[in-house]
Amino acid sequence: MIVTETQNSTVFVLDDEPAVRDSLRELLESEHYQVHTFGSPNEFLQSPDTRQHGCLILDLKMPGIHGLEVLRAVMCQKPSLPTIVLTAFAEVPAVVSAMKAGAVNLLEKPCSHDQLLAAVRDAIAQSEQDCEQQTSSDEVQAKINRLSLREREIFQQLISGMNVKQIALNSGTSPNTVRNQRSSILEKMEADSLAQLVRMVLEAS
């Protein structure tokens, strides 16, 4: 059996209306997404399942609590989960507030199936990119942890753009010593050149 990308992705739906949840579940499952639905913010925020790879569809209108408050709580507790906001009133202030709070997209209800599915695909693509970047960042940090304290000091000066003579003067040592330390740093960081080292750090940041 071939496992598609959507089968590895989970869409979480947070909406207080059962009919809306059922409709979204039917649509998303027809595209082979795994779907988990929630009827209240607390139910969602307390669920450990949301650590999975995917995205959240959030209705801004919630009884007893404004959707923006839910969105801020989501961004605080689950910052790696891209969130698509649904609202019946996509006015400029609502759009700006939602995007500032961390939403990756905002759709005005009722939206077409194509619009929603396109937003889900984009959100999941971002989730994948964020996951890859986090993996890259963790790998680079693991390599940095191999460096001695002195090498970390030299490393920081190298990636800030200082040359060997500047680092030697700044560190009170000889250029040859700095060159030897640079070679050791490149070896431990598994980089063939200073340019590759800088690129590695930038891509992981």
The total tally of domains equals: 2
Q: Could you tell me the strand content as a percent range? A: 5-15%
Q: Percent range for helical residues?
A: 55-70%
Question: Distance between the terminal alpha carbons, to the nearest Å?
Answer: 37 Å
Which CATH architecture of the largest domain? 3-Layer(aba) Sandwich
Report the total helices. Answer: 9
Strand order of the largest sheet: 2-1-3-6-7
CATH homolog superfamily of the largest domain: Response regulator
CATH third-level topology of the largest domain: Rossmann fold
Radius of gyration: 23 Å
**How would you classify the helix and strand content by structural class?**
alpha/beta
Gross morphology is elongated
Q: What string gives the helices and strands in order?
A: EHEHEEEHEHEHHHHH
Regions with little confidence, pLDDT below 50 for 5+ residues: 1-5
In round numbers, the mean pLDDT is 84
Task: Please give a structural write-up.
The protein is α/β, with parallel strands linked by helices. It has two domains: 127 residues, Rossmann fold (3-Layer(aba) Sandwich), CATH 3.40.50; 59 residues, Arc Repressor Mutant, subunit A, CATH 1.10.10. It has nine helices and seven strands. The strands form two sheets. It has a five-stranded parallel beta sheet, with helices on both faces. Strands 4-5 form a two-stranded antiparallel ribbon. Helix 6 packs across helix 8. The radius of gyration is 23 Å and the shape is elongated. The N terminus is likely disordered.
